[in-house]
Amino acid sequence: MNQAGLSSDTVNVMMSSISSSSRGQYQSALNRWEVFCSTNNCSPFTSDIKIVLDFLTSLYKHQLGYSALNTTRSALSLILGPIDGFTVGTHPLVSRFLKAVGRLRPPKPKYNSTWDVNSVLNLFRGWPNNSELSLRALSQKLVGLLALVTAQRVQTLHAIKLSSMKFSENKIEIFISSNIKTSKPGGAQPCLLLVKYLSEEKLCVVDTVNEYLLRTSVYRKHDQLLLSFESPYSTITTQTISRWLKMLLNEANVDVSMYKAHSFRHASTSKAYQAGVSADVIFAAAGWSRNSLTFAKFYNKKIDDKFAFADSVLARPVNKV
After folding, report:
1. Fewer C-beta within 10 Å: the chain N or C terminus?
2. Is 118-262 a CATH 3.30.559.10 domain?
3. Cβ atoms of 281 and 305 closer than 8 Å
4. What is the C-alpha to C-alpha distance for residues 314 and 294, in angstroms, rounded to an integer?
5. pLDDT tens across 86-138, in order?
6. pLDDT at position 5, please?
């Protein structure tokens, strides 16, 4: 961007098009680029395809994988001008290089398997009723149930605000107004649906939300739903939510050296799929694009029930004879 002669104000506005997490990843890649250019006596704003490819090759030799190199390609596109009429990211030689890396060192899925949702649900079944739980336990239970029945990212759970929650007798609708990973101009924002779970009161997310709001009402000063369970009871970060989810996994005897907070999303959608919930319902609940045509085409079982996802996640497993 700087090479284009843009003002710092313009650059700052344009940088807002990138999420904070992506900016952090880009900064790491650009730091490596700056060191490489300093070592090789070249300008970090050079538009020489050979130097760019030499840089990517050096990263590859240092065992960086496809994902890191692809992030680097995007980061370089921000600061370098066109090369041979192409942006760095779309230059044929760079595209060819990344394609080769994808074959030589293909990206690996974070999880090859997932944990059983009942590990956490059984933990909740063994806890006292909501009214008897400490605020700490109630807060962690709420986060755990929200993560399971909505299959949303931690970022989305963090964005839940009281002013965007609509309460009715047996359900709660939550409209996410903040910018999140999937937000885009003209695109629909997530609307989470929490439905009262009558089969097991201890697993009812609606009851848990109501109890949480009752307990936090005496000191609540913030619109954000999730607050610290200790004085001064301020708003919490996404890192805190992730830590609470990991603590639940640990208490449920799930291997936390392998599974992190994001694995709640994998576990709940896997259970829903195994329970026969259609791909359309799972995609809608988790906020995924319907571009996964292979999954939608071959595994869609056409269950027309908007409450099917949450119910399937919470249901006890059927004993096979």
Report:
1. C
2. no
3. yes
4. 27
5. 999 999 999 999 999 989 988 766 656 788 889 999 999 999 999 999 999 99
6. 54
CA 8 – CA 210 distance, rounded (Å): 47
Q: Can you give the pLDDT at residue 278? A: 75
With a CB cutoff of 8 Å and minimum separation 6, the contacts of 317 are 118
Q: What is the pTM of this model?
A: 0.69
Q: Rounded to an integer, what is the distance from CA 68 to the centroid of its chain?
A: 18
How distant is the alpha carbon of residue 64 from its chain centre?
23
Query: Is the CB of residue 284 less than 8 Å from the CB of residue 277?
Result: no
Give the pLDDT band (50/70/90) at residue 314. confident
Quick one: which of 100, 98, 94, 61 has its CA closest to 77?
Answer: 94
Q: Rounded to whole angstroms, how far apart are CA atoms 42 and 48?
A: 10
Angle between helices 66-79 and 20-39 (to 10 degrees): 80
What local confidence, expressed as pLDDT, does residue 107 receive? 72
- Averaged over 31-47, what is the pLDDT? 90
Altogether, the residues listed in the chain come to a count of 321
CATH 1.10.150.130 domain span(s) along the chain = 2-104
Q: Residue 82 has which token pair?
A: 């066109």
- The separation between the first and the last C-alpha atoms of the chain, rounded to the nearest angstrom, is 64
Distance between CA atoms of residues 60 and 103, nearest Å = 13
The segment(s) of the chain belonging to CATH 1.10.443.10 are 118-262
Q: What is the pLDDT of residues 259-305, one digit of tens each?
A: 889 889 888 888 888 888 877 777 777 766 655 543 444 333 333 34
Map residue 88 onto helix, strand or coil. helix
Q: Which CATH number fits domain 2-104: 1.10.3370.10, 3.20.20.220, 1.10.150.130, 3.30.70.890?
A: 1.10.150.130
